[in-house]
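Example 3.2
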Amino acid sequence: MIQVGQTVAVALLVYFVARIRWERSPEQRKRLIRLLLLYVCGAHLAMIVMQRDSWPISNYRLLHGRARLETGQLFRIGFFGVDKRGREWRIDPYAWRGISDWHLQYWFEVNFPALNPEERKEVVRWLYGLAERQRGELARGKTSPSILGPLSAPQIWMFPRELAVPPEPYVALRVYKDTWYPGPVLIDSRKITRKLVDEWRAH
């Protein structure tokens, strides 16, 4: 049933685009463009409400091929604040003020290794500032990632929130890289290799 709905969603999109492309009347073309915009907005709203994906009414990249459970290595860049007792707290992905957590991870994987030591220090220090700023907000009960609160548009990526924070400031920010192979991790979730990428200490 879900596949039928997705097929209909794509078919309607193709229909509107084709009609606009071949329509001769300027007035009729304007009307079709307005209908297309209404359809796209309505379809996105439906995907948000139903929490489903229906390409191309989606924010996901189109992927192809088959995953290799034993040889296809995956990774995740993790950002952790450290309290004065040495405990680590995963930073909420909305702490980066408009920068997608996914894109930040990708940037760290591709660009961060090419920076010199001073540049790396500056990057992690800046991220520490954003993480500490949000820690204070979460500690005061402000959980909305936007200054508009509930009136703001939803973040399209819908990252899982990390709302637990210590009451006192972080003393450091640590950046880790986790790597794993899906097959072994499906059997034993502990088969993940963690490496410290960088750390910035406030004092």
